[in-house]
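User: Please fill in residues for this 377-position structure.
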């Protein structure tokens, strides 16, 4: 026997539908809502009044219409009704970013704090989170959660580091942070975090191989709009695929891994900044240009191998994405065409649509997504 839907469930469903409609359309009138959702004007009016009282939405001017008479009031969501904070833990610094319900940056800070696996370090990071939060003037109850992007594999429950050789933090528990913070906290692998940002920036994206070209190499497989994690939690760890016999030693202990050839760490000289390096590349400085062409050639080899396995779009993301030019993509295409046995189309290599702050923003977004998918908004 089917359970009947209660009046309260109908009311809640109407409220959620109206909020979602306003969120998607940014600025709407009562008439728009009533017509497009096929809800009565009294139902819409009652819900708008209640959500405005609760602080979820606000009036934002008026909307021009072709109708004669007074212009209709425009409604939009209160974008910072709830916010989320992303924290990227690196070897020598900690990056933080706060985003609103549209995933837009509210503020961003970087703190020079060297990673240490001890209580003083975790307390210091948490103190900086409080400092950062206070600078926003946001009350604690408006913060959805803190996502910590880590250079390591994370357990499915997001509470522990499964493999963290870069920072020597294997086994690290989220409680080292959450014990000092009054907000929900979770870990996320930095490459997955960057891919989450890409999905947010491209709502229509369904299938792709995302390459995170950052301080360290990472990847994520996007399938049917979701990120595949794999049976044992180490799906897409292409950084440890051997590319050459011998070669430099990877942080995993082996030699010649993709990591040692396709990370920013491998590309840049000690103390060299990306800005300085790429300024030299674009000015055709021989030494920098030779290094860059070698990097691109190695990237082409890696992409060709992976593309033979998974025939899909490849998104070049991570910190390096902001420095890529059309000529670099053309160079990669030509290199791949010389290696692949197939006639390769020029449509599968793409530059990330969110090249800046993708890891920190991606760490914050899961809490925003959870809030927006809550039927009890």
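Assistant: Residues filled in for all 377 positions:
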């Amino acid at each position: 026997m089917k359970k009947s839907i209660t009046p309260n469930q109908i009311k809640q469903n109407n409220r959620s539908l109206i909020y979602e409609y306003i969120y998607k359309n940014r600025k709407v009138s009562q008439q728009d809502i009533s017509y497009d959702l096929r809800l009565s004007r009294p139902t819409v009016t009652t819900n708008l009044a209640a959500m405005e009282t609760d602080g979820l939405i606000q009036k934002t001017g008026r909307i021009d219409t072709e109708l004669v008479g007074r212009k209709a009031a425009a409604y939009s969501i209160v974008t910072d009704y709830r916010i989320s904070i992303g924290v990227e833990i690196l070897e020598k610094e900690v990056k933080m970013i706060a985003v609103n319900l549209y995933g837009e940056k509210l503020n961003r800070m970087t703190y020079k704090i060297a990673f240490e696996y001890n209580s003083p370090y975790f307390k210091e990071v948490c103190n900086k989170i409080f400092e950062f939060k206070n600078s926003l003037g946001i009350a604690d109850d408006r913060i959805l959660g803190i996502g910590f992007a880590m250079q390591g594999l994370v357990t499915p429950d997001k509470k522990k580091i499964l493999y963290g050789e870069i920072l020597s933090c294997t086994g690290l528990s989220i409680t080292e942070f959450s014990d000092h913070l009054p907000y929900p906290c979770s870990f996320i692998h930095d490459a997955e975090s960057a891919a989450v940002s890409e999905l947010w920036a491209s709502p229509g994206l369904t299938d792709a191989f995302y390459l995170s070209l950052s301080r360290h190499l990472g990847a994520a497989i996007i399938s049917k709009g979701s990120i595949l994690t794999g049976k044992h939690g180490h799906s897409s760890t292409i950084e440890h695929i051997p590319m050459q016999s011998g070669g430099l030693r990877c942080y995993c202990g082996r030699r010649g891994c993709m990591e040692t050839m396709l990370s920013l760490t491998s590309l840049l000289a000690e103390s060299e900044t990306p800005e300085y390096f790429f300024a030299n590349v674009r000015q055709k400085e021989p030494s920098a240009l030779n290094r860059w062409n070698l990097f691109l050639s190695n990237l082409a080899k890696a992409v060709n191998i992976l593309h033979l396995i998974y025939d899909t779009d490849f998104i070049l993301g991570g910190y390096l994405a902001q420095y890529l030019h059309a000529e670099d993509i053309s160079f990669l295409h030509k290199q791949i065409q010389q290696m692949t046995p197939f006639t390769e189309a020029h449509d599968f290599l793409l530059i990330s649509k969110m090249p800046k702050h993708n890891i920190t923003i991606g760490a914050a977004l899961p809490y925003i997504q959870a809030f927006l998918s809550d039927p009890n908004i």
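For context: The chain has three domains: 7-77, 83-195+358-372, 204-351.
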